[in-house]
Amino acid sequence: MNIAACIDHTMLKPTTTLGDIENLCAEAIHYQFAAVCVPPLFVKKANELLAGSTIKVATVIGFPFGYSAIEAKVAELVLAIIDGAGELDMVINISAIKNNDWQFLANEINTILPIVKNKNRVIKIIIETGILTDEEIIKCCDLYGAAGVDFMKTSTGYAEKGATIRSCTTIA
Q1: Parent domain of 156
Q2: Residue 88's domain is classified under what CATH number?
Q3: 161 three-state secondary structure
Q4: Residues 153, 75: one domain?
Q5: Could you tell me if 79 and 51 are in contact, meaning their C-beta atoms sit under 8 angstroms apart?
Q6: I want to staple 104 with a disulfide (CB 3.0 to 4.6 A). Which of 10, 26, 96, 169 is the partner?
Q7: How far is CA 53 from each of CA 15, 56, 96, 131, 147, rounded to the nearest angstrom?
Q8: Whether residues 4 and 33 fall in one domain
Q9: Which of 10, 39, 59 is the last residue of a domain?
Q10: How do the pLDDT tens digits run along the chain, 172 residues long?
């Protein structure tokens, strides 16, 4: 198996330039990565740069903190789909978890998921495991697994603490 075909090559720093995206896409083509993950601003350009390849374009929704209103996430999601994103990495509302508002989280995913699936897109949910308890991680896996998301991701890289071996084994 070619491990590169399982990698999302990512550039999400706040100072990302067009040159960064051009380099990212060129590297993705060279190594045959599965996808590039770019800021929403660069989705159209990444699609142009990857035209004719099998590499997918992913972008982020609610990034990096996840506390956007559901309606804002829907607007981001719709625009990303219009711009050509094939994969959507959505940060869940960590504040809702910390306030034990699982109904909010259920409403969020039940609003987002039909839009994604209706357009035959992939959704990856980022749960920020480094700042969650084991119980919260398990509840997230139960909620999002039952909802039918495509993938769970462990971290945005922006929280005060990233994913750990412990938090990743909790998911497994």
Answers
A1: 62-172
A2: 3.20.20.70
A3: coil
A4: yes
A5: no
A6: 96
A7: 27, 8, 39, 37, 31
A8: yes
A9: 59
A10: 789 999 999 999 999 999 999 999 999 999 999 999 999 999 999 999 999 999 999 999 999 999 999 999 999 999 999 999 999 999 999 999 999 999 999 999 999 999 999 999 999 999 999 999 999 999 999 999 999 999 999 988 877 666 665 555 665 6
User: Could you give the CA distance from residue 92 to residue 70 in angstroms, rounded to a whole number?
Assistant: 10
Looking at the fold, whether 86 and 107 belong to one and the same domain comes out as yes
Look up tokens 């938090």; give the residue.
167
- Residue 152: C-alpha distances to residues 50, 78, 137, 145 (Å): 25, 21, 11, 9
Is 75 in the same domain as 145? yes
Return the pLDDT at 158: 72
pLDDT of the residue at 164: 60
- Residue 67: CB atoms within 10 A of its CB come to 12
The pair of structure tokens assigned to 54 is 């099998």
Give the distance, in angstroms, between the CA of residue 34 and the centroid of all CA atoms in the same chain. 14
54 and 130 belong to one structural domain? no
Residues 106 and 51 in one domain: no
Number of domains observed in the structure of the chain: 2
Establish whether the linkage from the previous residue to 14 is cis, with ω within 30° of 0: no
